[in-house]
Amino acid sequence: MAKDKKGKSESKKAKLAEKKQKQEKKAEKKAKVKSAKIEGSDAEDVDLDAVLEEYKKQQEQFLKVTENVVEDPPRARAASTFMASPTNSNQLLLFGGEYFNGALATFFNDLMVYYIDRDEWRCVTSPNAPLPRSGHAWTRGGNDSTGVYLFGGEFSSPKQGTFYHYNDFWRLDPATREWARIECKGKTPPARSGHRMTYYKNYIILFGGFQDTANQTKYLQDLWLYDTQNFVWHSITPPPAQLKPDARSSFTFLPHDQGAVLYGGYSRVKATVAAGKQNKQGGGNGGSKNILKPMIHQDCFFLRITQPPADSAPNTAPTVRWEKRKKPANTPNPTRAGATMAYHKGRGIMFGGVHDVEESEEGMESEFFNQLFAWNIERNRFFPMGLKKARAPGKKAGGGNGGDVRERVGRRDRAKQNEEELLRQLAALQAGAKLDGDDADEAEIEAILKKQRGEEEEEEEKDSKKKVRDMPVSMEMPHPRFNAQLAVQDDVLYIYGGTFEKGDREFTLDDMYAIDLGKMDGCKEIFKREGDDWIESEDEDDDEEDDEEEDSEEEADDEEDAMEVEDKKAKFTPSDRKKKKAAKEGAEETPAVAEAAAPAEEEEETEERVDDGLPHPRPFESRRDFFQRTSAEWQEILMTNLRWKGIQPESLAVKEIKAKAFELSEEKWWDCREEITALEDEQEAAGIGEVVSLADKAGAGGGAGAGSAGRRR
């Protein structure tokens, strides 16, 4: 008994010593936080205009546009803009953004260019670039295919006590890296951030966003069109009776051949709830109060744009109409905010997002996602996209395909022989001999061939030296996140950065990945860096310290109660930044519902396969094979379409007709991509590696016996 008491006494002493050590560490951390705030603080009444003017003066010291190779990727940032260069298929563009370390916010205005073929980052400096910002939007031009247009954004004091919103409008030439500020006469869009932009022909389309004021956040639902030919903004006011999207930010806005499409978004709406206080009799006091309630929008709108007649005045606005669509079928579940999309071949490629679930008044638990979806715009349906291992070349499950493999090998050998013969004929011409004569000096021809091969080997050696490093490839998607930046270049999806939260800490992810949307054969890691410079606030430290003291007391008093506390489900609270924003928006307390259900929507569109009469790709069929099989049909479809438009097909060259027909077949191939991928997965699971029609098999000279044997297997 005495031994037990002695053991408990020693255990208490050890716990007290450990507690004292923790308190000393907390005191050191608090001192660090205070010094960081003193050093970096401009006080909350900082003059942002003066700060931005100083930025401008520093920028003007650059005499010309310069582009320098940097050793490391860009600094970690959130709320930046990321785009595939419209003028160079080997480049990606990144501009602006902000980084928050728990105490101070830093804003950027550097233009970073990633050279895909070299795995190289370059930083562009310019005397005339937009000032530092985040939450801005940009888009490529429609008819102005060489331009990138940027509008708005926000800037704040380091401690985010004061916000500034931009209403400036810029054009970037991606080829020369030149920025030009566009000054327009007449009415222009007001300042904002969190908005979205897209393009249609000669128009730049801008919608939504929000404005931060000292007391609240105001969400916007105004629509603006900029005419890139007449250099004027048009403010579009729909008729009062016309359905239009509610005010929102962080939505998807994608181009369409007749205008644009809008999906989803986030906002906070006013709601009246019963007061939480109760009287002595246990009933409610009958009072109510107003709160700001989060809303994740799931509605979808089509923006139809009709250009003015050709004989109308230059500044005539187009005819614009919002048309509400049905709720997309197979939407990701649960609903999520911060899921971003990139446009690709008539689809929106969506990644990530966060779903907040209210646990109690003290905090909420958040679920983060790293799933990939394709939203087919025309069908208004979501399709999940998953990674799968690449199929071994020449491997065909199901049997009966050995002849096909041998045939392909034979074609490659013949092509190589033809190339050798062509090189020999060119060498003979250089030697001055006739192609069909015997006067050629064989030794001289061999010398020329040897020289050509040597030059080719040198070129190959140079190319191999320039070859980029091998990047790790994983069969898992990147870490879950929200507000990731996406761009698609040459059918490859690039995922840059994003935000993740755990407890009171906010992680700005510092990484970049690439996924081939055609093959879906893995996720390539371009770079990934770990950051650990988060500075905890004094409130967070106090909360942690109080929790530890309570836990220590419970352990000392009753070990069983302590075990129960440890077994309780951990509660996640919003990041300190979320708390500040909720307070700034006027929320008197945590809203009763973290994820507000959207207004009653139409029932999801049922999946009905409609036969459009067009050739359909087969499982395991590449774009090239699909076109070779259906080339005649696509050319006939193209010529019919041309005649409908009053264009005679005879006026086009055969090569041009084939090129346009291939574009039509490629569009169909991508349109069916997710359905075909699902069929391929099912057939591979069943041991089928290729589907060949009997007609094609007979045409290739195959017997019926081989096909029957294949079916029996």
UniProtKB/TrEMBL annotation:
<feature type="compositionally biased region" description="Basic and acidic residues">
    <location>
        <begin position="1"/>
        <end position="27"/>
    </location>
</feature>
<feature type="domain" description="DUF4110">
    <location>
        <begin position="610"/>
        <end position="698"/>
    </location>
</feature>
<feature type="compositionally biased region" description="Basic and acidic residues">
    <location>
        <begin position="404"/>
        <end position="416"/>
    </location>
</feature>
<protein>
    <submittedName>
        <fullName>Galactose oxidase</fullName>
    </submittedName>
</protein>
<feature type="compositionally biased region" description="Low complexity">
    <location>
        <begin position="589"/>
        <end position="599"/>
    </location>
</feature>
<feature type="compositionally biased region" description="Basic and acidic residues">
    <location>
        <begin position="611"/>
        <end position="624"/>
    </location>
</feature>
<feature type="region of interest" description="Disordered">
    <location>
        <begin position="449"/>
        <end position="471"/>
    </location>
</feature>
<feature type="region of interest" description="Disordered">
    <location>
        <begin position="529"/>
        <end position="624"/>
    </location>
</feature>
<feature type="compositionally biased region" description="Basic and acidic residues">
    <location>
        <begin position="565"/>
        <end position="576"/>
    </location>
</feature>
<dbReference type="Pfam" id="PF24681">
    <property type="entry name" value="Kelch_KLHDC2_KLHL20_DRC7"/>
</dbReference>
<feature type="region of interest" description="Disordered">
    <location>
        <begin position="390"/>
        <end position="416"/>
    </location>
</feature>
<dbReference type="InterPro" id="IPR025183">
    <property type="entry name" value="DUF4110"/>
</dbReference>
<feature type="compositionally biased region" description="Acidic residues">
    <location>
        <begin position="533"/>
        <end position="564"/>
    </location>
</feature>
<dbReference type="InterPro" id="IPR015915">
    <property type="entry name" value="Kelch-typ_b-propeller"/>
</dbReference>
<dbReference type="InterPro" id="IPR052588">
    <property type="entry name" value="Kelch_domain_protein"/>
</dbReference>
<feature type="compositionally biased region" description="Acidic residues">
    <location>
        <begin position="600"/>
        <end position="610"/>
    </location>
</feature>
<dbReference type="Pfam" id="PF13422">
    <property type="entry name" value="DUF4110"/>
</dbReference>
<feature type="region of interest" description="Disordered">
    <location>
        <begin position="1"/>
        <end position="40"/>
    </location>
</feature>
